[in-house]
Structures are given as structure tokens and as C-alpha cells.
Write a structure and sequence with these properties.
Elements lengths: L3 H33 L7 H22 L4 H7 L4 H37 L10 H5 L1 H21 L14
Helix pairs in contact: 1-2, 2-6, 4-6
């Protein structure tokens, strides 16, 4: 699994960058058509909204993979040894449980319902199930990263890969 991590990190980072670039171009086109051409584009606002959903959810998975979640650092920053290790194990387990139940389970159900109902977006005529697919996908990525973090924490490795002393 550790050999798969750099590949997923690179792919996820690239997808987020492409989505961000596309979102910038989309919004620029929206501004141009609205203020220069005086005939606003009909799809750009909806497309920007959906890309923002994907960037936000995939970005949260990327942040989880980089262990840059603010709350985790606030909790564990002043702890050392066994307390820090136990706190990291607990935090990663809670994130894993949340990602599995809410994001993967609930998000997967949301996608299934939306695809079953065949609900489509107004301007793009895109099935909303595809838009909401970002939820379980991000959840699966967070589960993957949480499992790796749990294994690292169980081995006593800190975020930088150093071994903790286990004292305190």
C-alpha cells in the first residue's frame, strides 16, 4: 500500500490542479460573457458550483493524505510519547470511521438514489449522481490515507516518519 501512496498523491494532486485551472477559466469566461458580450453564458455558474464541490472534497482527501488537518495538529502538537501516539491513533480511527460511514456509506447511497431517480442539473443536463460521486470517492481516499496513518501511528512513527520513544 505504501508504494501505491505516491501514485495516488500525484494523481490526486494533478486532478485537483486541473479542476482548479478549469474552474478559473470557467469563471473568467462567465465574467467575459456577462460584462463584455452582455450576454451571460447559461452554464458557467452551475459548472463552477459542481467543480467547487469536487475540488473541496478531493482537496479534503488530499489534506488528509498529507496529514495537514488542523484539528489533529492542535490535539497532538503538545503531547509526547505514548500520549501522543494514543491521541494520533484515536484521531485517525475517528476519521476512518467517519469516512466509512458518512462519506462512503452515505455518499454511496446518495449517488445510488440520484442515479436511480435520474435527476439532472438544469443548465448542463448532467445527472446529479455524477456530481455527488465526489462524496464517496473522497471518502474512499480518506479511508485509504487513514489506514496508512493508523499503521504508521501503531508502529510509533510520527508525521515525519521518525520513531517515537513511547515514553510519557
Amino acid at each position: 500500500m505504501k508504494t501505491l501512496r505516491p501514485v495516488i498523491d500525484r494523481l490526486l494532486g494533478s486532478v485537483i490542479c486541473v479542476l482548479m485551472a478549469a474552474m478559473v477559466l470557467n469563471v473568467l469566461w462567465q465574467v467575459f460573457t456577462r460584462f463584455v458580450l452582455r450576454h451571460p453564458s447559461s452554464f458557467t455558474e452551475e459548472l463552477a458550483r459542481y467543480m467547487m464541490i469536487w475540488v473541496g472534497l478531493l482537496g479534503s482527501a488530499y489534506a488528509a493524505g498529507k496529514k495537514s488537518h488542523l484539528a489533529r495538529d492542535l490535539i497532538t502538537a503538545h503531547l509526547h510519547g505514548a500520549r501522543k501516539r494514543a491521541s494520533e491513533l484515536f484521531a485517525h480511527a475517528v476519521v476512518l470511521l467517519f469516512a466509512l460511514t458518512v462519506l462512503v456509506g452515505g455518499g454511496g447511497r446518495l449517488v445510488y438514489i440520484q442515479l436511480s431517480l435520474g435527476q439532472q442539473s438544469a443548465a448542463l443536463q448532467l445527472k446529479l449522481g455524477y456530481v455527488y460521486l465526489a462524496v464517496p470517492l473522497a471518502g474512499l481516499l480518506i479511508v485509504f490515507y487513514s489506514i496508512l496513518a493508523l499503521v504508521d501511528a501503531a508502529r510509533g512513527e510520527t508525521q515525519t516518519g521518525e520513531q517515537s520513544s513511547g515514553l510519557n
